[in-house]
């Protein structure tokens, strides 16, 4: 099954941004929150060095190579996933093969040029390719080592490789679906996926991470070591605090998965969305579902169920009855875990698009107002359910704030270099409209450079603690970018 990105999103309704960082202006402060209890900073602010990095010296230290503008292959290695950002002009791309390469990059470039980690390269704002900066490309650090009920994954690994390895071992790691998304950005922003209601977010399975911080040190972040950093890495967003070089996750036994897809008549979204909200809010955690509204009228409800086709059939019958309308088609298909992940997998081809998000905290009182926002041309709305295991943790237990939310809404539009401004305008209008009907939060992995309230929208009351962690580990904003978490 090979889909372009828009078709893929209609199938699955989930994705993730890659690890991101760039340099730009930042807000002065965030909202107040309770005292966080972050321990004292490991080092104080230092004098910013003068002049550009010594690229020749850095190249001599790297085992993976350094590619500079004008050199063979530079135009290819600098590119991310979204073609809209092909015009970005980084100063260099470091192809890191081991943690010492990442340390060398930070030591050479910190305070001199922007430093941006890139894993999958799916940053929705192109933050992983900063103009005039150093791209720390982690693609060569892509090992996936299954060790019993644990898996150690290099920060450059893509989801297709993660699923292949853990699935072959009969294990499961809940994560996103787009095959070329990097495990790093996905995890650092939280990690939504089609099994989240049963198993939680990707970051909920994180045991420890190896991180190169702004002082060039390689640290182990876990519940026992650097606990403040460990807390922040679970939902605090890619590109902040340091560059992760590897992750250790706990896994679960791989389940059998029944996938499903229901189509409803065009124009019925207004009568289907309300019952869907109530249905998914009361559904067992074994059921995950999304609601996809495309082209202003097309309606599809899809998802996964960890149980028998017969059990799922009864749940679907109940839902259809609640809508008061009819379904035009129904697909119910049992699969093994790896097969289900492949089912939701889209094309790896680079795409051109504009996207953003909002979060629905609780069922909307007037769901038809959300449906009306799909009137803009080329807009798809993809509503992905939360709840279940995701909600068992408190919003402050990790940096991922939206624990108690009903769902996320991704706003997606295809775009070209010629119509980009119009597509962005339409996406912005829908995002503002969603906020106006009560969907005020946002998911950092669908990072949105135009979001006016982005810090609160992404992180809620966790902002103050996140800013204190930033002060502790990156007081000089070495990893600063337009939507970076700034030191308190």
From TrEMBL:
Keyword tags: FAD, Flavoprotein, Oxidoreductase
Pfam family membership, one: BBE
Single Gene Ontology MF annotation: FAD binding
Co-factor requirement: FAD
InterPro entries: BBE (IPR012951), FAD-bd_PCMH (IPR016166), FAD-bd_PCMH-like_sf (IPR036318), FAD-bd_PCMH_sub1 (IPR016167), FAD-bd_PCMH_sub2 (IPR016169), FAD-linked_Oxidoreductase (IPR050416), Oxid_FAD_bind_N (IPR006094), TAT_signal (IPR006311)
PROSITE patterns: FAD_PCMH, PROKAR_LIPOPROTEIN, TAT
Entry similarity comment: Belongs to the oxygen-dependent FAD-linked oxidoreductase family.
Name by which UniProt lists this protein: FAD/FMN-containing dehydrogenase
């Amino acid at each position: 099954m090979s889909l372009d990105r828009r078709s893929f999103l209609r199938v699955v309704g989930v994705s993730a941004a890659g690890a991101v960082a760039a340099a730009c202006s930042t807000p002065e402060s965030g909202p107040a929150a309770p005292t966080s209890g972050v321990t004292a900073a490991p080092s104080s602010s230092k004098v910013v060095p003068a002049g550009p990095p010594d690229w020749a010296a850095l190249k001599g230290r790297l085992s993976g190579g350094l590619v500079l503008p004008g050199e063979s292959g530079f135009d290819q290695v600098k590119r991310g996933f979204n073609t809209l950002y092909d015009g970005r002009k980084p100063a260099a791309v470091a192809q890191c093969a081991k943690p010492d390469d990442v340390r060398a990059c930070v030591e050479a470039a910190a305070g001199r040029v922007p430093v941006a980690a890139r894993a999958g390269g799916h940053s929705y704002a192109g933050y992983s390719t900063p103009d005039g900066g150093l791209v720390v490309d982690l693609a060569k650090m892509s090992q996936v080592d299954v060790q019993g009920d644990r898996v150690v994954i290099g920060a450059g690994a893509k989801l297709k490789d993660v699923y292949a390895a853990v699935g072959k071992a009969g294990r499961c790691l809940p994560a996103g679906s787009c095959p070329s998304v990097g495990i790093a950005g996905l995890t650092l922003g939280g990690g939504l996926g089609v099994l989240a209601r049963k198993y939680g977010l990707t970051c909920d399975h994180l045991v420890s991470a190896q991180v190169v911080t702004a002082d060039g040190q390689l640290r182990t972040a876990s519940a026992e070591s650097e606990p403040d950093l460990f807390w922040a890495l679970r939902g605090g967003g890619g590109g902040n605090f340091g560059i992760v070089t590897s992750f250790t996750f706990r896994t679960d036994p791989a389940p059998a998965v029944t996938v499903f897809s229901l189509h409803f008549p065009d124009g019925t979204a207004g009568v289907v969305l309300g019952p869907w909200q109530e249905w998914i809010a009361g559904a067992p955690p074994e059921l995950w579902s999304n609601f996809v509204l495309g082209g202003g009228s097309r309606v599809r409800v899809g998802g996964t169920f960890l149980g028998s086709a017969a059990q799922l059939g009864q749940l679907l019958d109940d839902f259809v009855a609640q809508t008061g309308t009819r379904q035009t088609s129904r697909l119910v298909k049992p699969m093994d875990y790896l097969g289900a992940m492949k089912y939701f997998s889209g094309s790896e081809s680079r795409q051109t698009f504009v996207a953003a998000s909002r979060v629905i905290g609780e069922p909307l009182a007037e769901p038809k107002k959300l449906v009306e926002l799909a009137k803009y041309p080329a807009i798809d709305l993809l509503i992905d359910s939360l709840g279940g295991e995701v909600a068992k943790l408190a919003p402050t237990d990790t940096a991922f704030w939206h624990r108690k939310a009903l769902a996320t809404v991704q706003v997606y539009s295809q775009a070209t270099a010629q119509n980009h401004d119009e597509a962005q305008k339409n996406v912005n209008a829908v995002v503002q409209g969603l906020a106006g009907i009560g969907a005020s939060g946002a998911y950092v992995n669908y990072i949105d450079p135009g979001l006016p309230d982005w810090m609160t929208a992404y992180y809620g009351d966790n902002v103050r603690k996140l800013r204190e962690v930033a002060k502790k580990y990156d007081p000089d904003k070495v990893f600063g970018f337009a939507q970076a978490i700034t030191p308190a």
